[in-house]
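When time allows, look over one protein, given below as sequence and tokens. The question is which stretches look regular and which look disordered:
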Amino acid sequence: MYRPMMLFFALMCSPVMAAAQQPCTSDARPVVNELYRHMLERNADARSNYWVQQLQSGQTVKDLVREFAKSDEHVERFWRQESGEATPYLRAMSTFYRHILGVQLDATTARTFANQATRRGLDPVIDQIVDSAEYTQRFGDWGVPGSGGLQYCGPNSGPNNRTFNANPDTDPADQADRTRFEDMDVNNDGVVSRREWRGTPVAFENQDWNDDGLLSGAELEPAEAQGRGRGRGRGQPGQSG
């Protein structure tokens, strides 16, 4: 009984493990194909060559996700109001969220985003989702939404496909800071959470200048941190944020 049960669980878990262990690809073509499949829900066409070139020339996957979401085709096909909706564009908002983040959107947040899109326009809401801490934690700059773990490791994706882009010409102290951040990022998702942080709570608060509970993007750049985080001394008595 024991061995059949172990075989059953191994077969059930193997797809998940394969996705988690999937290496990054230096070939931009499958990345673009996945974006067409997941976000536009169709096969890639000749226009896809342009997006391949954009990746190869330095744009990130995150850049492409933003542009796909805002594209005329994506908006015309998926941003529509359906009959019977208590909140206009509620289902469309859920579709956009799934295309960008690869997960389902809860009803409360869907209503909030749909109302914001109605008042402010769709583009700011797309930016809000793409720039969210959740997107950064899931995909960073190089992960492909909806692909089951595919990442692009092109010429500008940094060492080990992380979002930390070390520059050999930088000051040695700055380079040491970047290395320290990379070492803290034990799950290689491109951000440093409070759980991963190895330092004092005050030091984390000073580094986390956008107050999202994660260190990501510019917060991991030493010069940026000195200008916005450490330099302003947030979290010290008698000082306001």
Q: What stands out?
A: The chain has two domains: 22-139, 162-232.
